[in-house]
Amino acid sequence: MAADKNNNKQPTAAQLDEVKEAVRKLLHQPDYDDGSAGPVLVRLAWHSAGTYCAKTNTGGSNGAGMRYEKEGGDPANAGLQHARAFLEPLKAKFPWITYADLWTLAAVVAIKEMGGPEISWKGGRTDFTDDSKVPPRGRLPDGAQGAEHLRFIFYRMGFNDQEIVALSGAHNLGRCHADRSGFQGKWVNNPTRFSNQYYKLLLANDWKKTTLPNGVTQFVYVEEEDDGAAAAEEEGGEKPESLMMLPTDIALLSDPAFRPWVERYAADKDLFFEHFAAVFAKLLELGIKRDASGKVINDENAEDGYRSAPKKSDTATAPGDQGPGQIGHEARALKEENDKARRRKEGAKL
Questions:
Q1: Does position 146 have pLDDT exceeding 50, yes or no?
Q2: Catalytic: which of 103, 121, 187, 207?
Q3: According to the model, what pLDDT value does residue 148 have?
Q4: In CATH terms, is domain 13-139+284-345 a member of 1.10.520.10?
Q5: Hey, where are the domains in the chain?
Q6: Nearest residue to 325 via CA among 79, 70, 81
Q7: Number of Cβ atoms within 10 Å of the Cβ of 213
Q8: Is 103 considered catalytic here?
Q9: What is the model's pTM?
């Protein structure tokens, strides 16, 4: 497919407003997770930008490298094919926008719509034409690790301890899936509402270490049942879902430099929102070079301008279903889940 004829022209404010409105309309996804595409869209932007290395000035959100196996195949990105598929109808409707801009813009819109802060966003990112500038795998956080690992990952990007704790607040949203990250469950009771509840729960609950059937270790908290809850279960009601935390979450409590920021954000939602908005905007700009007017002047942008890659499949495709070089990035363990999602979309009974 040829590149869109409007390529090399950065979108206008009016065009971007149309995209924002379309993102708002697609967030409601009753058949996906907790009924919203918002959390996984935030994760998509986070992971697309979180590959940055300040020392080598490689990685970051420019290029939308996750379209290629080299980056998308990183196990840390398992499950993000769902986020990319949610945005494909928008790519069809607005073929002039780059994937790199669409993924990052969708996240800031989603955060605001889920009750979070307004986050500064600048466009102009281009899409790579091949995978030669895609960063190596292994640059994203591993939730099974501790404070030392967090600093290794985030210091590489240029963040400090306060910013690490603020960015961890993204765990107010979404949930983990055993067949993706290996972990299972949600951090907070309402995972589609942005708040500071994550920090409050970290401090308030007695988190118990547990090992899942797949051998992965995480921390869980289950509220003690009262008479009403027990009666509801006897009458066929569902048992309340336990909450969970990752080892990296618990590390924020045990580390003497991280914990004070957990306490401050738990006590002051406005402060957390202010700091999160600043650090998330910083995350999305990692590796982006701009001139005085705000135009992106990275080498690939200077060479090809605002280049929007051809649209991909509308479904969360499994390995081998798309063109050479563009696919294979869905982890093999997700194939069965993808097939089920596709059949559900077609109205089949599972």
A1: yes
A2: 187
A3: 98
A4: yes
A5: 13-139+284-345, 147-282
A6: 70
A7: 7
A8: no
A9: 0.86
